[in-house]
């Protein structure tokens, strides 16, 4: 194996956004992204209490069916990249621990992500003897296999527990470490699993094939190096200086080399068990290690953020490289291009370093702590990325992601489509309002009165209205950039905002536990109720009322335009956050906290349904998409989610409108995915392909002139126009 990875229990808390105080606001009021401190360790040893691993993990973007009511699909990004290895296809393959996906990057930087049922916090990865990649799933205790075309197979087996490192063995099987049960596992390429135990195995992590035909592994908790033959005989070696060993690899000198995560040193052990330890300036909590093409060993250093890449010769000379593109390095491997490739767990990037020390960083998709989301005027969804310095993302309904950066984007939060055909967003970090065209041109507007802007909405007066969370005021900005600020009794920590059916703007007072209303001339009214508790999102409902989330009360609220409040309990309970009106006449909301991590639906009469999926992880914003589905941001999962409704299909266009039997026909519309039948004037046709907005079919033999129909589980749609069969 090219890298060995301990679970990053303490690290995850530092990487994910957490709820905390901002600018004096009480806990729970704002979402705060915190950089890792200098004390985090990307490859620290597995935390153990009474011999049981403590896994503090963010379950994120996983696969799900893409059609039917309540079905969820996820679009992932690089998220918590951990293990990395060279694939048989000339590319590098890596595990996305935080987004439950496997990534592939070419040597020119093109990145692809693969999801699949059963991928659950993958860690280690290795090229198998069968031309596929094999990886460990540390959370669901399975071993995964992915072909170079992206087909995923998951293997279970009694005794697989907290699998970490994995490598191809000399016997044609894969060997892996079971940190949860202190065993070494073996899995054949057909999925047969065998386990080997020994009293000397203690917290095994990294594993590699040795030059002597055996497997060698690190005992992270036992401070020792282990050796296991292909028949299962285990030998354990101790030595001065072995301290929390992590990664291990075969060196060019016939010895094994390993990292001492706790000892800030690099170790060498001969196949007869002689141990030597090397220290050097710059070695700090080393983790992954691999043999380089230059005859030296290369390793990742994760001591003080952002960390470093190290090189050690077989005689013990150490060189350390730092670079802005290094950000919490974890795994490392030799690439087919003569360079070293590594994962930046801390910055969600993949790094490349030449043997002369030149570093390049590669990012993916651009989904990084996504927050707000809205449907754009261009038929795509637009969202805010609060990670890093912040960026604006765009995702099509087929999942293609583009992201735009600008020096003026700073911790963007809310986003909405403006009346001028552009997208408008709030920059919490710089106290400005941003505007981005659908081609990516960014403009920002400043004003001394903008203070902690959060939510934003298009008003009925042709302007944009936003909440000043730190300024306890409501702002208005024209499409030419003129800003006006309104204060009023009762405005306290305003957050969400929406245009109401009465020509006014309605907003939530997160700290004041109330709902506010402001006219376009600036008159403010505040409504209180005992059930309003830390409200966040708010939207206009199809029933002429306003609907909002009570984050603190685990309920959904409804307020009429005259101020009458009703509350409906969220059965999650999951701290409801964002809310939007769906195309099905119901309200849809995100449950962003606790065990729920789900998407909720509430009818205007108060009936609540909750949809769960392993890939939903701290969902935040939610909006209705142009394809008849709901789209939401998975903040902790660095992904965008899509959930279908149960609305009936609709046909908007037939192309062409005439054709003989066998002719290809495209049916455009909404809610078409999962079609069970297509018929031409009653004669059933074959479905070539289907998405939410398009079905490709062929005119069936025997069809006659008439209407075309599409049937899904939610109902049947019939074309308004006649299709002519000559």
What overall geometry do the principal axes of the alpha carbons give?
globular
Describe the sheet with the most strands.
4 strands, antiparallel
Q: Unreliable stretches, pLDDT < 50, 5 or more residues?
A: 1-68
Give me the secondary-structure category: mainly beta
Major sheet: order of its strands? 5-60-59-58
Portion of residues in helices?
A: under 10%
Q: Mean pLDDT score, rounded?
A: 87
- Write down how many β-strands occur, each being a DSSP E stretch of 2 or more residues: 68
Count of runs of 4 or more consecutive helical residues: 1
Rg computed from alpha carbons, rounded to a whole number of angstroms? 28 Å
What's the multimeric state? single chain
What can you tell me about this protein's structure?
This protein starts with 8 loop residues before the first helix and ends in an 8-residue tail after the last strand. The strands form 18 sheets. Strands 5-60-59-58 form a 4-stranded antiparallel beta sheet, with no helix packed on it. Strands 6-7-8-9 form a 4-stranded antiparallel beta sheet, with no helix packed on it. A 4-stranded antiparallel beta sheet has the order 10-11-12-13, with no helix packed on it. By secondary structure, it is mainly β. Strand 46 (494-499) and strand 47 form a beta hairpin. The chain contains 1 helix and 68 strands.
Any key phrases for this structure?
726 residues, mainly beta, 4-stranded antiparallel sheet, 1 helix, 68 strands, disordered N terminus
């Amino acid at each position: 194996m090219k890298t060995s990875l301990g679970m990053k229990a303490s690290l995850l808390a530092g990487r994910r956004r957490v709820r905390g105080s901002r600018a004096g606001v009480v806990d729970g009021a704002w979402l705060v992204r915190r950089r890792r401190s200098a004390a985090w360790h990307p490859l620290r040893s597995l935390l153990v209490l009474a011999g049981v691993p403590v896994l503090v993990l963010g379950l994120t973007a996983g696969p799900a069916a893409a059609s039917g009511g309540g079905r969820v699909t996820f679009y992932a990004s690089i998220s918590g990249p951990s293990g990395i290895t060279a694939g048989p296809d000339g590319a590098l393959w890596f595990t996305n621990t935080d987004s439950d996906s496997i990534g592939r990057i070419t040597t020119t930087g093109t990145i692809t992500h693969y999801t699949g049922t059963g991928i659950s916090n993958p860690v280690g990865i290795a090229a198998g003897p069968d031309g596929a990649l094999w990886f460990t799933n540390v959370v669901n205790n399975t071993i995964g296999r992915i072909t170079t075309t992206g087909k995923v197979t998951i293997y279970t087996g009694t005794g697989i527990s907290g699998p970490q490192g994995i490598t191809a063995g000399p016997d044609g099987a894969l060997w892996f470490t079971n940190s949860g049960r202190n065993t070494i596992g073996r899995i054949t390429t057909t999925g047969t699993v065998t386990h080997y135990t020994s009293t000397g195995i203690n917290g095994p992590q990294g594993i590699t094939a040795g030059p002597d035909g055996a497997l060698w592994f690190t005992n992270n908790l036992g401070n020792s190096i282990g050796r296991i033959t292909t028949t299962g005989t285990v030998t354990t070696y101790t030595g001065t200086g072995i301290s929390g060993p992590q990664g291990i690899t075969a060196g060019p000198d016939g010895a094994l080399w390993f990292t001492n995560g706790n000892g800030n040193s690099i170790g060498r052990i001969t196949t007869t068990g002689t141990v030597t330890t090397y220290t050097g300036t710059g070695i700090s909590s080393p983790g992954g290690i691999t043999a380089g093409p230059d005859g030296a060993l290369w390793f990742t250093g994760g001591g003080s953020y952002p960390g470093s890449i190290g090189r050690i010769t077989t005689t013990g000379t150490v060189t350390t490289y730092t670079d802005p593109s290094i950000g919490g390095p974890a795994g490392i491997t030799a690439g087919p291009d003569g360079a070293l490739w590594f994962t930046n767990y801390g910055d969600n990037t993949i790094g490349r370093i030449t043997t002369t020390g030149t570093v390049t960083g590669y990012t993916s998709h651009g989904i990084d702590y996504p927050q707000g989301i809205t449907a754009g005027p261009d038929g795509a969804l637009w969202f805010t990325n609060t990670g890093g310095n912040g960026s604006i993302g765009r995702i099509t309904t087929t999942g293609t992601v583009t992201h735009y950066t600008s020096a003026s984007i700073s911790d963007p939060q809310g986003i909405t489509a403006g009346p001028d055909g552009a997208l408008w967003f709030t920059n919490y970090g710089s106290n400005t309002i941003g505007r981005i065209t659908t081609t990516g041109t960014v403009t920002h507007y400043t004003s001394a009165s903008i203070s902690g802007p959060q939510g934003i909405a298009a008003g009925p007066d042709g302007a944009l209205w936003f909440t000043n969370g730190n300024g306890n005021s409501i702002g208005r900005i024209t499409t030419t950039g003129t800003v006006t600020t309104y204060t009023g009794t009762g405005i306290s920590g305003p957050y969400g905002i929406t245009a109401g059916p009465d020509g006014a703007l309605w907003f939530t007072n997160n700290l004041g536990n109330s709902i506010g209303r402001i006219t376009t001339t600036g008159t403010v009214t505040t409504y209180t109720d005992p059930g309003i508790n830390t409200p966040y999102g708010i939207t206009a409902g199809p029933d002429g009322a306003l609907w909002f989330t009570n984050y603190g009360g685990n309920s959904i609220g409804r307020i009429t335009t005259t101020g009458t409040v009703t509350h409906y309990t969220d059965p999650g309970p999951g701290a409801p956050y964002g809310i939007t009106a769906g195309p099905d006449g119901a309200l849809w909301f995100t449950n962003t906290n606790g065990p729920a991590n789900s998407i909720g639906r509430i009818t205007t009469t108060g009936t609540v349904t909750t949809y769960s999926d392993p890939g939903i992880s701290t969902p935040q914003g939610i909006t209705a998409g142009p394809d008849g589905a709901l789209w939401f941001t998975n903040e902790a999962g660095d992904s965008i989610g899509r959930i279908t409704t149960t609305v009936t299909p609709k046909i908007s266009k037939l192309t062409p409108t005439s054709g003989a039997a066998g002719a290809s026909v495209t049916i455009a519309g909404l809610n078409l995915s999962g079609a069970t039948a297509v018929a031409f004037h009653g004669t059933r046709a074959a479905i070539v392909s289907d998405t939410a907005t398009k079905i490709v079919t062929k005119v069936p033999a025997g069809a006659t002139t008439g209407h075309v129909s599409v049937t899904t589980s939610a109902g049947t749609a019939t074309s308004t126009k006649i299709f002519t069969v000559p």
